[in-house]
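Structure ticket #2291
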Amino acid sequence: MINLLELYVKLGGLVLVGFMLGRKLPHTVPTRLGQFLFWVGGPISIVSFLRQADLSGQIWIAPAIAYLAILLGAFLAWVGIKGQVYFTNTTPQPATQGSLILAAMVGNTGYLGFPITLAMVGKEYFAWALFYDLLGSLIGSYGLGVALAANFSSSVSNYGQTARAILINPALWSFGFGLIFRQVAIPSLVESCLEVLGWTMVALSLMLIGMRLSRLNSWDKIPQAGISLVIKMLLVPVMLGSLLPFFGVTGDPAKVIVLQMAMPPAFATLVIAETFNLDRDLAVTALAMGVIVLLVTIPVLLWLF
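Resolution: structure written out below.
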């Protein structure tokens, strides 16, 4: 309970600071900060925390579970859409269907998942969250997510640009570098400075979430967003989390996986929705509601697992 309270104070405080700054600062600041974290800050934190992470055990199962969570979320969202058609005799527009499925698939396992995992489980098992995000969520969102969005959109998709966006992602490159660099001995002072930089980037990422939330003003699609959030943040974590012992994943690693599965929809879902002309209002509402719902689902899931 103390760790959870500490998490809420730190998480909520930094997001709130970002929210207030987002209301006051020029519109270009969140964009610039996001670019800095994407190209510089994120890679620094990945390299920093990888040095202290435990890479033993069945860590490679993390991305496999991420793909299972993505596919299960998409399937349950599809079932929900069919159920709505059956019971209400109304069919959502293709753009709305696409956004609903996207929001149920991919979670914010980076900007939110990393700091929450670090706070609740510690640096030792950070690599499980990292593998889940970079080798699971990232590829799932810009691979399967883009393919799905193209299917529900009349826009012409550019798969070349999608492949390029994945290949040049600095997080993936820093992940590879970090795996090598963790074997290199460095002075304790440099190690300490690197750790401080890593935590600073985590704090900035939480503030960035607040800044972006300050610009989200649409709440018209709460019922549809609610369907996605129940699937993404409750059903999928509970269903797959119950099966983790059969994969040999227990204890703190299992807790990391459950927390990652329970993250609210990723900002990538909004980017994809805007790119492929899906239901942007639904994507926006799911993002905003998801951060609020997270405060309730974290203690529930930690109690269950």
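Closing remark: The first helix runs from residue 2 to 24.
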